[in-house]
Write a structure and sequence with these properties.
Layout: H1 2-18, H2 20-40, H3 44-65, H4 72-77, H5 79-85, H6 90-119, H7 127-151, H8 158-186, H9 191-220
Helix pairs in contact: 1-6, 2-3, 2-6, 3-6, 3-7, 3-8, 6-7, 6-9, 7-8, 7-9, 8-9
């Protein structure tokens, strides 16, 4: 575990040293969500109806912004080869890097979501479920995206290819995330949707690190 958290700390130090990259995801999330009232008008009834979908779609796109640099920088400077040769299994390395990525990209999205929900006139009854759904959904998005990032390491126009690979796989998380918030706003139980999101997270934790590690080994050969 000490090696695992050493990699997490390394990723956090690199991101904080680079400065702008660490806050890029959060800035995009806030700016993109803030554009919707300008585009569809300030009518609270309209914003209330689309609030959960807007927040989830923008969160999905913001999380995807951080994926291209997940392995590419280490691949370019040779660090990925050293990580692959380290005593820590490559699957654990992938999990450590995705956890650090979630701390830098996913957690700020979760923290900012209630503020944007107020901007979009979402009912306060949906706030707790929105936070819970994002806490379950954002790590799932990043884990799925890690597989796509590993597959596109070293590829030309990897960012565009990465988007094409992961966006279809993000659809179930988006559907159940929005459904959970809408159920809470409507006064019904969001428990079924949250359980499905939990199952998706467990499946991603079980499968994504191995799939991403296999793709990285293939790119290093």
């Amino acid at each position: 575990m000490s090696r695992f958290f050493a990699i997490v700390a390394r990723e956090l130090r690199i991101a904080l040293r680079q400065g702008g990259d660490a806050g890029l995801t959060l800035v995009f999330f806030i700016l993109a969500a803030s554009l919707f009232p300008l585009g569809v008008g300030p009518d609270p009834a309209i914003l209330h109806r689309i609030a959960s979908g807007v927040i989830w779609v923008v969160a999905l796109l913001a999380a995807m912004l951080s994926l291209e640099r997940l392995f590419q920088a280490d691949h370019d400077d040779g660090s990925l080869d050293l990580l692959a040769l380290s005593p820590l299994p490559l699957e654990a390395v992938v999990l450590a890097k995705t956890f650090a990525n979630w701390l830098l990209a996913g957690l700020p999205i979760v923290a900012a979501a209630p503020v944007l929900a107020l901007l979009l006139h979402m009912e306060t009854a949906g706030f707790a479920v929105l936070i819970a759904a994002l806490l379950l959904g954002t790590p799932t998005l990043i884990l799925i995206g890690a597989v796509g990032a590993a597959l596109t390491v070293g590829a030309r126009r990897g960012g565009a290819l990465l988007s094409l690979l992961v966006l279809p796989l993000y659809s179930p998380v988006l559907i159940f995330g929005v459904a959970a918030v809408d159920a809470a706003v409507a006064g019904t139980s969001a428990r079924p949707q949250l359980l499905v999101l939990s199952a998706m997270l467990l499946a991603a934790l079980a499968l994504a690190p191995w799939a991403a590690a296999a793709a990285l080994r293939q790119s290093l050969e």
